[in-house]
């Protein structure tokens, strides 16, 4: 590769407080336009903002989870600009004394773990929503003043995939902390990306593009992939790059340059005189630290240690907090010390059922006792693995018991040799080629023959028994 | 620090203030004087002084996360120069 890709992400996260950052207006999503508003969030002169204690708590929690240093002395500043979604003509944000700095987030790729630096996590407020119609733009201030965190990463990400992994990891941790809905479609998590290319080995960074308007993690990845190609083409053609903001157009699958005025960004930050400073002392930090839940990485290590899971399996199970809790209760209740069988069912058939239904594991409403009972039937060879998978699917859809479903479907496995011999004989007659292949030493041929018997017995034959019977039958011949 | 007319125009635009040519001249002089006055701070030794961001010696003023009753939408829109349905309406913003 000739060029190195350098990406930094800026995430804006809505905190899931009941009320807005600086007033008691509700943060409920989807309410009638301009119904969650008051003189404070509408920016009426003479009103005074007071920050939400819960928002500060959540912010500190999140910053600690990312290993950030909480700044002892922090304050709010005004970021001044005019836009119709901003009634005060300034956004309350943080400039030189942010809540926290110097954190990190670990992502996992094929090459192993990689640590991505987090420059800062700071507090700010959301703007309103604009709806563009012909001739006019309509403004809804319900979202105005909802507490936001801005999470800025170091330019440590070197591919669109790493950016995607960073977001997935970030979301997983935030979900564990329960400080935000993290729903990109609802706008509770938004992400802008800075991307530039440089010759491999070059010290200086290339000219960067700022990407906006992505509304899914996949959108972020796609926009970055497009941009890597576009910038590579420009560099290869020795064209001059300009620093610009580009919008991702999901329909066109392309980024489009945004029209901006030269030197428009002059925000004239200054301390907001309406808000006091915050002194966050050590006792407050340790108090909040004590409330931190077990985070995905710690849970993964514990699963490996306590239940003998592989790191790979554990990682799949811990990525969602609710899934991890469901999985752990299944594993705990599964009889015996060896949990491998249960783990295989969870990350194998159950996870595919979930993906098929576009749900998460815990959303399948599966009774863990039925899952345990089903695995028991397979273990005792009462039903085949294949039948069990279809029972699992029915367990989810019908909520009936595994025992009833097996009986109703007449799925009891046939292990009795006499009952199987007739089918085996037919299969041997019909598949002369495989039979001679097997005799010639091709072991795959046996698997094929077993498969044919399984098919003819509607999946009810016990494959182990069938295999043994065919082997014996062909050895005799 | 001298304040030329271009700077005045720039600052006026940032504040969305429309100035007449004679006002430009006048403000340029006034701002020059004000900044000259503030420049006096340069001669003070402030090495030991922490920057002040708030004039009152209070900190950590917070409110509980309890909802209040918001304004009725009609009330919120009452003073709007222009509205449409439940929305404030503004000249179209072109992106
Ligand atoms: Zn309000």
How do the strands and helices of this protein lay out in sequence?
The complex is a heterodimer of chains A (477) and B (95).
Chain A: E1 3-14, E2 51-52, H1 53-65, E3 69-70, E4 73-74, E5 77-80, E6 90-93, E7 100-109, E8 112-125, E9 129-132, E10 136-140, E11 147-153, H2 160-177, E12 189-199, E13 209-214, H3 217-236, E14 244-249, E15 254-257, E16 270-271, E17 278-279, H4 282-289, H5 296-307, H6 311-318, H7 321-333, H8 340-356, H9 368-379, H10 385-398, H11 402-408, H12 417-430, H13 432-439, H14 444-456, H15 463-476
Parallel strand pairs in A: 13-14
Antiparallel strand pairs in A: 1-11, 1-12, 3-7, 4-17, 5-6, 5-16, 7-8, 8-11, 9-10, 12-13, 14-15
Chain B: H1 5-14, H2 21-39, E1 62-63, H3 73-77, E2 83-84, E3 87-91
Antiparallel strand pairs in B: 2-3
The structure holds zinc ion.
Residues 20, 23, 25, 37-38, 40-41, 145 of chain A line the site of zinc ion (ZN).
Uncertain residue ranges of chain A: none
Beta-strand share of residues of chain B: 5-15%
Q: Which class of secondary structure composition applies to the elements of chain B?
A: alpha+beta
CATH class category name of one domain in chain B: Mainly Alpha
Summarize the biggest pleated sheet of chain B. 2 strands, antiparallel
- What is the CA-based Rg of chain B, rounded? 22 Å
Quaternary state of the chains: heterodimer
**Strand order, sheet with most strands of chain A:** 3-7-8-11-1-12-13-14-15
Quick one: how many beta strands of chain A? 17
Which terms would index this structure?
heterodimer, A: alpha+beta, nine-stranded mixed β-sheet, three-stranded antiparallel β-sheet, 15 helices, B: 95 residues, Histone, subunit A, 36% helix
Task: Outline the structure in words.
The complex is a heterodimer of chains A (477) and B (95). With 477 residues, chain A is of the alpha+beta class. Chain A folds into three domains: 3-289, no CATH class; 296-408, no CATH class; 417-476, Arc Repressor Mutant, subunit A. In chain A, 40% of the residues lie in helices and 20% in strands. Chain A contains 15 helices and 17 strands. In chain A, strands 3-7-8-11-1-12-13-14-15 form a nine-stranded mixed beta sheet. In chain A, strands 6-5-16 form a three-stranded antiparallel beta sheet, with no helix packed on it. In chain A, strands 4-17 form a two-stranded antiparallel ribbon. The longest helix of chain A is centred in the middle third of the chain and has 20 residues, at 217-236. Chain A is elongated, with a radius of gyration of 29 Å. Chain A starts with a strand and ends with a helix. Chain B has 95 residues and is of the alpha+beta class. Chain B has a domain at 5-43: Glu-tRNAGln amidotransferase C subunit, N-terminal domain (Histone, subunit A, Orthogonal Bundle). Chain B contains three helices and three strands. In chain B, strands 2-3 form a two-stranded antiparallel ribbon. The longest helix of chain B has 19 residues, at 21-39. Chain B is flat and about 55 Å long. The two termini of chain B are 36 Å apart. Strand 2 (51-52) of chain A pairs parallel with strand 1 (62-63) of chain B, so a sheet runs across the interface. The site of zinc ion has 8 residues of chain A, from loops.
């Amino acid at each position: 590769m000739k060029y190195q890709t350098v990406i930094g992400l800026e995430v804006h996260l809505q905190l899931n407080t009941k009320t807005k950052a600086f007033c008691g207006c509700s943060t409920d999503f989807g309410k009638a336009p301009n119904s969650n508003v008051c003189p404070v969030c509408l920016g009426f002169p003479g009103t005074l903002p007071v920050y939400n204690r819960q928002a500060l708590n959540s912010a500190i929690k999140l910053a600690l989870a990312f290993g950030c240093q909480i700044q002892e002395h922090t304050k709010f500043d005004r970021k001044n600009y005019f836009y119709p979604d901003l009634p005060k003509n300034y956004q309350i944000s943080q400039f030189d004394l942010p809540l926290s700095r110097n954190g990190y987030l670990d992502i996992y790729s094929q090459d192993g773990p990689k640590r991505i630096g987090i420059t800062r996590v700071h507090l700010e407020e959301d703007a309103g929503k604009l709806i563009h119609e012909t001739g006019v733009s309509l403004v809804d201030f319900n979202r105005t003043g909802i507490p936001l965190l801005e999470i800025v990463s170091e330019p440590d990400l070197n591919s669109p995939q790493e950016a995607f992994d960073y977001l997935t990891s970030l979301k997983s941790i935030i979900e564990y902390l329960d400080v935000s809905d993290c729903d990109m479609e609802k706008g509770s998590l938004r992400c802008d990306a800075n991307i530039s290319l440089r010759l491999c080995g070059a010290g200086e960074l290339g000219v960067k593009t700022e990407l906006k308007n992505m509304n899914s993690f996949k959108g972020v990845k796609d926009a970055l992939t497009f941009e890597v190609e576009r910038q590579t083409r420009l560099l290869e053609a020795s064209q001059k790059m300009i620093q610009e903001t580009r919008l991702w157009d999901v329909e066109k699958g392309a980024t489009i340059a945004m029209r901006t005025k030269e030197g428009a960004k002059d925000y004239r930050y200054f301390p907001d005189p309406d808000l006091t400073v915050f002194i966050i002392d050590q006792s407050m930090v340790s108090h909040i630290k004590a409330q931190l839940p077990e985070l995905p990485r710690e849970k993964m290590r514990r699963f490996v240690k306590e239940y003998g899971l592989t790191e790979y399996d554990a990682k799949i199970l811990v990525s969602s907090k609710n899934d991890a809790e469901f999985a752990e209760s299944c594993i705990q209740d599964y009889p015996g010390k060896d949990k491998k069988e249960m783990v295989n069912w969870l990350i194998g058939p159950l996870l595919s059922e979930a993906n098929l239904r576009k749900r998460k594991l815990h959303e399948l409403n599966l009774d863990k006792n039925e899952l345990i009972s089903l695995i028991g039937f397979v273990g005792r060879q009462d039903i085949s693995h294949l039948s069990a998978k279809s029972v699992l699917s029915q367990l989810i859809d019908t909520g009936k018991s595994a025992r009833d479903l097996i009986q109703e479907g007449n799925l009891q496995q046939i292990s009795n040799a006499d009952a199987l011999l007739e089918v085996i004989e037919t299969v041997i007659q019909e598949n002369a080629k495989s039979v001679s292949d097997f005799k010639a030493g091709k072991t795959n041929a046996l698997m094929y023959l077993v498969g044919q018997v399984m098919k003819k017995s509607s999946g009810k034959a016990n494959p182990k028994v069938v295999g043994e019977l065919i082997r014996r039958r062909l050895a005799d011949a | 620090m001298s304040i030329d007319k271009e700077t005045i125009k720039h600052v006026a635009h940032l504040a969305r203030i429309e100035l007449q040519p004679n006002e430009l001249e006048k403000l340029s002089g006034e701002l020059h004087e004000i900044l000259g006055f503030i420049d006096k701070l340069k001669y003070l030794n402030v090495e030991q002084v922490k920057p002040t961001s708030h004039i009152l010696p209070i900190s950590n003023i917070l409110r509980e996360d309890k909802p209040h009753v918001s304004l009725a939408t009609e009330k919120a829109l009452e003073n709007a120069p222009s509205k449409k349905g439940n929305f404030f309406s503004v000249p179209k913003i072109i992106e």
